[in-house]
Amino acid sequence: MTPGLEVEAEAKRFEADPDALTVYVVRSGWGDTRHLVAVSVDDSRPIETVPQSMVRMRLQAGVHRLVFDFEQDHGAIEFTGVLGQVRFIRLAGDFWVWGGSFGWSREDEAITKRRARRTRLVGDLRIL
Fold first, then answer.
1. Under a CB-based contact definition with an 8 Å cutoff, are residues 88 and 113 in contact?
2. What domains can be seen in the chain, in order of their start residue?
3. What is the pLDDT of residues 9-27, one digit of tens each?
């Protein structure tokens, strides 16, 4: 179920939670126009993302594995964080007449945070 507008407004303040590592997975880009892409962390239940969307994940400190699945396209990235930290990770998609793909972007987190402000919250996960 998609989080409500109140949860989205709270999430978009991008405030740190002293009891969690907060990660925003941001899916935003001009070449990403229509596909559903499942995203999960540490083998959790996948959350389907859409273009111009984000997922907030509040996790334990430590090393985590973030995975996306789209048709035959799969990708994983590991990241580390501490309690009270806020991270931004971008899922980028590019589609052309001859095909398309997704991948984890190494974009500066400040840029990804700006992108997040223009997205819709489609998932709010808490695994502590």
1. yes
2. 5-127 (2.60.40.10)
3. 999 999 999 999 999 999 9
